[in-house]
Amino acid sequence: MNGKMKGAVLPGNSTVEIREFDIPTPGHGQVLIKTMASTICGSDIRCIFIEHTGTGAEGYIDGMIAGHEPCGVIVEEGVGLKRFKAGDRVLVYHISGCGMCYDCRRGYAVSCMSEHRQAYSWQRNGGMAPYILAEEKDLIALPDSLSYNDGAQVACGFGTTYEALEKIGVSGNDAVLVVGLGPVGLAALMLAKAMGAEKLIGV
Ligand SMILES: [Zn+2]
Ligand SMILES: [Zn+2]
Fold this sequence. Notes:
Helix content is 22%, strand content 26%. It is built from four helices and eleven strands.
């Protein structure tokens, strides 16, 4: 797909700039996704929007399209795909790990220390644009029962807190107290309820 698109960039002075980009072409193992939803994360505000305070894994490369919580539908396939095809509804896990290190192989790309690790919207373009180029290995299938807006929120917020609840092992034996009712805190309560906890307290 040739052509241009507009993408939102965060220059770091509490403003958003709309810049023009080429619509990317997927290479080997990659897909082009038509973005249907892309939510804003607390880390976007904390590390990019106001000023660029992040370093290392949180280091924002100036000019990257923002938005690491995208969800959409595959519109173009690169070669060598193994799991997904055009027309599939997907969300993008926000960290693209090297895929080879110990942490990546056990599913913890967030802990990948490789120089090849890239976070969408930080070290490679993210979802605040009509299209996003993503690695097939970073995709998660979006069930028909979930909307694109649901998928965008699951991408980072719900996933973050689900990991924590799994480690704790929440069940019907537990009462759950969540301090801080932002999107992740609210997600924690919804998930804890689904995991069986009957007494839920939010502060
Ligand atoms: Zn996030
Ligand atoms: Zn890795």
